[in-house]
Queue: 2 jobs
Job 1
Amino acid sequence: MYIKKQRLLTPGPTPLYPPALHAMMASDIHHRTEDFRKAYRSCLADLKEVMGTANDLLMFASSGTGAMDAAVSNLFSKGDKVIVCVAGKFGERWAEIAKAYGLDAHVLTVPYGQVVTPGQVEAALAQEPATKGVFVQASETSTGAAHDVRAMAAAVSRTGAIFVVDAITGLGTMPLDIDGWGLDVVIGGSQKAFMIPPGLAFLSIGTKAWKFAETATLPHFYFNLKKEKKSGEAGESSWTPSTALILALAEALRYVKQIGMDKLIENARLLATATRAAVQKLGLELFSPGSPGSSVTAVRAPAGMDSGVIVKEFKSRFGAIIANGQGSMKGQIFRIAHLGYFDFADLFAMVAGLEIILNANGFPVKYGTGVAAVEEIYERAAVAPQTVSA
Amino acid sequence: MYIKKQRLLTPGPTPLYPPALHAMMASDIHHRTEDFRKAYRSCLADLKEVMGTANDLLMFASSGTGAMDAAVSNLFSKGDKVIVCVAGKFGERWAEIAKAYGLDAHVLTVPYGQVVTPGQVEAALAQEPATKGVFVQASETSTGAAHDVRAMAAAVSRTGAIFVVDAITGLGTMPLDIDGWGLDVVIGGSQKAFMIPPGLAFLSIGTKAWKFAETATLPHFYFNLKKEKKSGEAGESSWTPSTALILALAEALRYVKQIGMDKLIENARLLATATRAAVQKLGLELFSPGSPGSSVTAVRAPAGMDSGVIVKEFKSRFGAIIANGQGSMKGQIFRIAHLGYFDFADLFAMVAGLEIILNANGFPVKYGTGVAAVEEIYERAAVAPQTVSA
């Protein structure tokens, strides 16, 4: 045990795709040159392709929260009535942004681990026909739960409101038919399924949402959707772009295209399925059994054990960083990530490590039990990948 | 001429410090861990040290424009009277930001190549005692001119207004005694004298400006100075930080500390002095002869020659990217940068290349004339660095 490789196994930042990291070395590039415009154009086009949308795609030098801010500050006006779905920490962030900009928010809150239902959204829309926007997380990273954005979109699209989806951990972990379902704004970030470090955010935006930009009156400058669209069409960004990360993203997107976005999603789904099987086999409880997403699986620590112990021992015993609960869930759950550059070998090792840690902390399990559950899912998927169901 | 190394010789992004690039490879780090907090804390502390200020230092995942936005949206209210100094493209940006946020801006505009004088600022302040803020560029990158921020600060500090200085190309190219002169807000970016790719912005903020944050009413979310101060004190950033760039900056700052900020500034000043000597010896005219800064030297193209020809031939003949004029100056001037990771060998090669390009395009010069001027400055500086004056 003298060598413990550092392994980043969290739901963002996620494990990094090495050729994308290497691409950053070539960032001695000026952003107002044809060389850069070529790279930037291809990056935007590849993102649109893997996201499967004909909508405009805009990119920002910021974390994902910057793109969330951009959607609110560019498309709404003070006092606008909106509906905010809150099923965890990132839902709370939507509510905070709405408050910061003075929107009149109807907040639909459910306990951590649960999801807001399409029915709740539909009822809230019926109650307030003047609603201008509905905000949700496709996948709530803090709990691992996934919202039924398809059904929500169907409800929203029948109204005058736009549907703004934080898909920062949703992209690449769940099918999102942006154009077919009518997802007016879809937000993503670089450090999730796209396998590169944080620092880039992007969003797709469709016709219905663009109309909102025409009449919205909230002030904004750095995040300017209309300006960014015009810049992007010229192959540039409005302000100095995060060149190193854009070159990294271009490289990662080549890999994602080679795999295929549907296969990347299937990869996450298989790992999530196997993780749920393994932890349940070990006698642990899932935190979001009702609507588990494939980006991350939140697991309850055994009764009487602080989940921080599991997180700490992953670091001290195996050099691996896994995620604790966030906010009020800290100490109660730990989270196993699946989004992006994760494979079955990562999961074999993670479940074996978990078995050792549980045993060492007064929660006896039979070594190999959880790993065997993962191996079985692997075998079924390798034989007939299409037939494995959640 | 079969090998032409790519050389980025622009005033931002500037040439990259290789060990800083290599540090980005280790960005498989999670931002809510003690490992990261340690790196982030040391990065903030080192920045404060090299900037020589006891003020708070806040960092953002954004380009420099994001920090400019942050200063306005966090410290002012709609309708506030402010003075904006405009001496080029980046001064115009201050005016645009003020407009976007509904400030009542008194814009002091001078032609590109000139500077706003401290007397103009003083007169404008006297004319409107209710002025809440004064905005300026320490160094106006688009023209190479440097403002007398020390004298301006003296005028502003006698009033109730705060002095907000965009020092994105000023830091590391000119002395800026933030605390001694009373520079209330000083803005910097990663891709300038700090030798790493773009994508990080930061600002220092003092007590007088913090008081403005208490009463300011403009809405904002992503850029939140008060929240960022609290996060920074805990060794974290409010939102997901741009980890790869922060690790790169930490490495570059080690180098800057090793050289010494004063020596880094002297390095730029010597290169600027040598550049002015060389181009004048070649019969070219400086664009800002009255108040030349050391970040970049803007040079007029010879009569009848588009400066774009010089820029293009640097690329095609030598693989080097130099900067054209910006905005209305495009085609009229070219710009030779000095800020950050530039040395005399870069300048020898650049001036030799310039001689060849001028000769090839109908502006005959004697080979070696300009280079000799640079060599002479080098020799004087190497013998007695302290005695070389601009």
Note: Chain A is about 45% helix and 15% strand.
Job 2
Amino acid sequence: MAVYTDVSFEDLEGFLSGYDIGAPLSFKGIAEGVENSNFTLQTDRGAFILTLYEKRMKAEDLPFFLGLMEHLQAHGIACPQPVRDKSGAQWSMFKGRAAAILTFLNGISLRRPGAAHCLAAGAALSGLHEAGQSFALARPNALSLDGWRELAKATAARADKVQDGLGALIGDSLAELEAKWPSGLPTGVIHADLFPDNVLFMGDRLSGLIDFYFACNDMLAYDLAVLLNSWCFESDGAYNITKAKAMIAGYRGGRALGDAEIAAMPLLMRGAALRFLLTRLYDWLNPDPGALVRAKDPREYSRKLRFHQQVKHAGEYGF
Amino acid sequence: MAVYTDVSFEDLEGFLSGYDIGAPLSFKGIAEGVENSNFTLQTDRGAFILTLYEKRMKAEDLPFFLGLMEHLQAHGIACPQPVRDKSGAQWSMFKGRAAAILTFLNGISLRRPGAAHCLAAGAALSGLHEAGQSFALARPNALSLDGWRELAKATAARADKVQDGLGALIGDSLAELEAKWPSGLPTGVIHADLFPDNVLFMGDRLSGLIDFYFACNDMLAYDLAVLLNSWCFESDGAYNITKAKAMIAGYRGGRALGDAEIAAMPLLMRGAALRFLLTRLYDWLNPDPGALVRAKDPREYSRKLRFHQQVKHAGEYGF
């Protein structure tokens, strides 16, 4: 969660004068989003989210993120829509930060999704992948092999303080992935962070996808690996193959998986687990005193990574 | 802000089954309230706030706070209303904490209120004082002389580390107030924390009062002193007598001030400033590592207290 930048109503009024979205009825900082400051804004014309992009977010990436949301919605994927200001811009500067107003999407994220929700999430992901094929912009994945190498270096000295053997786990895993990371698989726009937090449901119906701020171009099957990693493990560490099969079936309903993609899944699952292990470990070791969220426990992902190291072929994941 | 207790949608669903308020459409932790965990909840029947009472809040005080909000609304003071559950209860236990659902009040708090807003806030305060006269429950003010003495003791050793001379300022001020604190002035239910944060406006119209969790019984004129302290100083430390006169006129429109109350204002203003100086100083010196809000700067109130020490009579405040 977070409100890193304080925005008074008087500040807001000035900013809203550039928009044509009605008079404000309520305005509250919300406890969501690790990276940015987020506020809910209700006006007499509807509900919106105001986001001030902080820290790691680069303004030059905003046309990709905001353009992608417009593109996806135009292709039938429900997601927040940037509201253009009176000049037609998707974002502008506000309190020294890039800022945008997005439409508010109704729906609630689930903490314990069931198999039916996993099927819906898998279907939404392949829908996103298909719709993304016609998106004109591209953005490299900063959190793939090169990024992992940097994070591994930055955390190596203190990894074992978090968990015995963690440094070796990371080093060995990174060495294996450097040697064997797949190439030649189908690529396109991926969400790259489609955790249950970022999928909204109303009742059992998926109502939309949110938080596109890690979206980039990479292997599509890697995005499915991120999804399986974040939805299909139980809190006791067990991989729930019933949920996974539903998720894979949901995905395949929208996009066929090639043999090479399936064969690569054990590696892609390890890569996806290593990616979240490394970013969580880095944030755990380098807590931001100004952060208003508790860092997430990296050990959830070291356990998943160890699980994946035992997996010999994709069938064990439910393919 | 704060979300100290994590509430999943699945937790929420269980809790909502005890209420008759419709199906949830959205649910978000909000960045408000230093003491409690707050969530906005939108259902197909309306907007609500779910509050989990944490830490310092005692469950035995809830009938006073929640009953007061019902009583005030019934007497024409707009404020959040506790939604009774199917058994008729105003609150119940949820995740090990006392929890209540309140109606959501539209409106926005101002950071830089003008004289017209001050007049409206003054009028709302005397309306509250009048309406409170018929409220059956009572609660002592834990943050009056006895509480100040404890806080002064707990902060004395380190006060000067925050600001040179702060320990002496507090000690001298407390000694004066212990000797001269008024008695015999009209008492009743006071809000005790009616900062601009806790008054909502829609445009220039006051739409309601919120956050009654410091409400208690004490001298009514002390509540006006809290209001003047928190609304009528500019950020450069100047006391804005135009705003103060508007606020006092607004108050007097709803309730007459007696001569003894006016004569006591210099002391009441010092007491109100000392109260917020001490709680802020305590929180500044004892940061809660789990707190998700930044502590407020106590020096804002040491400056106000020093200002009040130069004031000889109530006329200087605009009376």
Note: Chain A has a mean pLDDT of 93.
